[in-house]
Amino acid sequence: MTDEQDRTPSVPDNSVVRRLVKEAHITEEQARELIAFLGYDWPSLIREARFLTRKR
User: Among 38, 32, 30, which Cα is nearest to 5's?
Assistant: First the structure.
Protein backbone atom coordinates (compact mmCIF):
# COMPACT_ATOMS: atom_id res chain seq x y z
CA MET A 1 0.00 0.00 0.00
CA THR A 2 1.33 3.44 -0.84
CA ASP A 3 1.13 6.63 1.18
CA GLU A 4 -1.28 8.02 -1.39
CA GLN A 5 -3.80 5.26 -0.64
CA ASP A 6 -3.64 6.05 3.08
CA ARG A 7 -4.29 9.77 2.69
CA THR A 8 -7.66 11.12 3.60
CA PRO A 9 -9.46 11.99 0.38
CA SER A 10 -10.94 15.44 -0.10
CA VAL A 11 -13.82 14.04 -2.16
CA PRO A 12 -14.68 10.37 -1.55
CA ASP A 13 -14.70 8.05 -4.54
CA ASN A 14 -18.39 7.39 -5.28
CA SER A 15 -17.77 3.73 -6.07
CA VAL A 16 -16.29 3.18 -2.60
CA VAL A 17 -19.16 5.08 -1.00
CA ARG A 18 -21.75 2.96 -2.85
CA ARG A 19 -19.95 -0.27 -1.98
CA LEU A 20 -19.74 0.66 1.69
CA VAL A 21 -23.42 1.65 1.79
CA LYS A 22 -24.44 -1.61 0.13
CA GLU A 23 -22.23 -3.97 2.12
CA ALA A 24 -22.50 -2.37 5.55
CA HIS A 25 -26.08 -1.06 5.34
CA ILE A 26 -25.18 2.48 6.38
CA THR A 27 -26.22 5.80 4.89
CA GLU A 28 -24.26 7.56 2.17
CA GLU A 29 -23.50 10.37 4.62
CA GLN A 30 -22.09 7.90 7.15
CA ALA A 31 -19.97 6.28 4.44
CA ARG A 32 -18.56 9.65 3.38
CA GLU A 33 -17.74 10.54 6.98
CA LEU A 34 -15.94 7.25 7.54
CA ILE A 35 -13.89 7.72 4.39
CA ALA A 36 -13.02 11.25 5.52
CA PHE A 37 -11.76 9.87 8.85
CA LEU A 38 -10.15 6.64 7.70
CA GLY A 39 -9.20 7.08 4.06
CA TYR A 40 -9.65 4.12 1.73
CA ASP A 41 -8.47 1.32 4.01
CA TRP A 42 -11.29 -1.14 3.30
CA PRO A 43 -10.90 -3.39 6.36
CA SER A 44 -11.06 -0.35 8.64
CA LEU A 45 -14.00 1.12 6.76
CA ILE A 46 -16.07 -2.04 6.87
CA ARG A 47 -15.22 -2.68 10.54
CA GLU A 48 -16.29 0.80 11.60
CA ALA A 49 -19.37 0.76 9.37
CA ARG A 50 -20.54 -2.50 10.89
CA PHE A 51 -19.94 -1.04 14.33
CA LEU A 52 -22.31 1.80 13.38
CA THR A 53 -25.04 -0.65 12.36
CA ARG A 54 -24.75 -2.51 15.67
CA LYS A 55 -25.26 0.77 17.57
CA ARG A 56 -28.75 1.27 16.09
Answer: 38
